[in-house]
Amino acid sequence: MYDTVNMYLSREQVPDISYLKEIPQYLTSVSNEGVSCFGEYINGYLGTLKVSISERRVKISDSSLCKYYLGDNFKSLARGDTKRAIEKICDELHLPFSKAPITRLDIAHNMMMKYPEKNYYQYLGEAQYYKRLEQSNGLYYNTQKRQLVFYGKEYEQRTKHKPIPDLYKKRSVLRYELRFKSRLKEQFKRSEITAALLYDQDFYSYLLKRWEKEYFAIQKITNKMTSLVPNGSTKNFIENLALLSLLDIGQPKVLATVKEWQSTGKVTKKQASDIRSKVKKLSMQPISDKGNFLIDELDKKIVQVARCG
Fold first, then answer.
1. Which of 98-112, 124-138, 181-195, 235-249 has the lowest mean pLDDT?
2. Is the Cβ–Cβ distance between 100 and 86 less than 8 Å?
3. Is 289 inside any structural domain?
């Protein structure tokens, strides 16, 4: 479930070595970048992880922990793999990164859907405290501290010309991410958030529930059109649209309007009788109350992922 994790070790946590002298030897694609507020700094890569080094800290940022350990982020980085991934970083950098404070944390999962990903976005409505924003390949919900993101993972990889595992090729893969972007201690109401906490059973279970809860807090848009059963008949389609309008307005109001038309001479007695008969006949037609099958499918996927972890 974990994806991007930003974390750092400060000089106070490891006071007995020189970061700038010791750590670059463990990285690839090392470049001398210059000077920042943290002094001289160097960038490089530990596998796919971006590492920035100054004499005051070693920072891992803007990189997928899942991709680093499992090879791609189509897979799901669960609690056990997270522990082994952090241990691998500790071994390769020769630093106690299990103690590293976390400054950003993304929880994500890919779900194979029956229909194209974009079909689902229109039924995901507003969410309290979030600003909803639709993009060409995704749907974003933004606050200053958090972000919810839905997008097509297979489509993203294909447009970026990146490899796609065979299992996901030409499939509708909807990815849902919950991103904690800042003030993690405040959001989780904890005195510290460290890398070791990521594989704590209670904390991991809490994050799964939070991932699920944030999704279900989004208003789901009902659409009575989903109750229509397509059969190719234009006449049937028009009658079903008329029935949906009748249900919205209410049969008593429609019949009262027809009576008013008759009393004011806008329609004849026979015309009013014919309209009333048609309204009553329409009202007797059954209509599905199953709700939105697209949202039903997505709801079930979210619950299943949260339960299985």
1. 235-249
2. no
3. no
